[in-house]
Structures are given as C-alpha cells and as structure tokens.
Prior knowledge:
The protein is α+β, with helices and mostly antiparallel strands. The protein has one domain (18-146): Aldehyde Oxidoreductase, domain 3 (Alpha-Beta Complex). Helix content is 35%, strand content 37%. Strands 1, 2, 3, 4, 5, 6, 7 and 8 form an 8-stranded mixed β-sheet that branches. A hairpin with a 4-residue loop joins β7 and β8. The two termini are 32 Å apart.
Amino acid sequence: MMSEEKKKRKKIFVEGAISSQFIGESIAKHSTKTSIGAHQIFLGQIRADIIEGKKTKAIDFTTYQEMAEEEYYQLREELFSKYDLTCMHVYHSLGMVNAGEINLFIFVSSKHRRQSIDACAELVEMIKKRLPIWGKEIFDDENYNWKTNN
C-alpha cells in the first residue's frame, strides 16, 4: 500500500462518545453533494443492561488501532465493489462511553436508497465480526466484564 494512499484515509476512531453535534455536522456537509439521493445512518448506543443483577453504567472501548483501521479499509473496498455507493463514513468510540451515549456512527450514501440501506446493514455486521474492538462493561458497583459482540 502506498503511503500517499494511507495519508488520505480518515481515522475511524474518536475518543469518548460521539456527539449529536458531530453527527448533525456530518450530515449537513453532504447537502452540497447533489448526486446523492439517499443516506443510511446507523447509531450504536450504550445500553444500561442488567447482568447478574448489576447495571451497566458504561463501556470502556479499546482496539488494536492500526489493524482495525486496515481491516476497515478492506471492508470499505468490499462494499464499494458490491454496491454503487457515493460515500461511507464510520466513527467508533475509544475509551469510556456512558449508557445512553453514542459509540458507533455509520453514514452511507448512494444515488438510490436500496444501495445505502443494504450496504449499511452489511457494514454493521462486518464491523462486529471483523474489527478488533473490545469493550469492557463497567457496572454501577465499579466491577467489570469483557463484552462479547452480538
């Protein structure tokens, strides 16, 4: 892979929760791209699950960043080859994200809705299965449990 090509790549990881302001600004930036006819957005939010009588108050995310970003760009290439997409953006939180906050923002655009809907749904599953991202559930009693993706 050429280093110049890698320089153009956007980082997919952000520290902490993903704000509604960031999501709104991302959407607004696309209003000038008038060849787009559809956007599909997926937002992953931290649930306050009850596990063995303890309530999840946050998840602390960690990753092997270089490997995860490289794998993401492989997924991206696969989906751009399979679907007629205009653009695709993924942002995933690292560090502590509290229950009720957004930790995953996927934004897929295309000329027609079916392409963006299908690509976004497939991408969510691919990220869960293939990216080396781990979450430590922090409970209200400060104990923790490593989360499994489902």
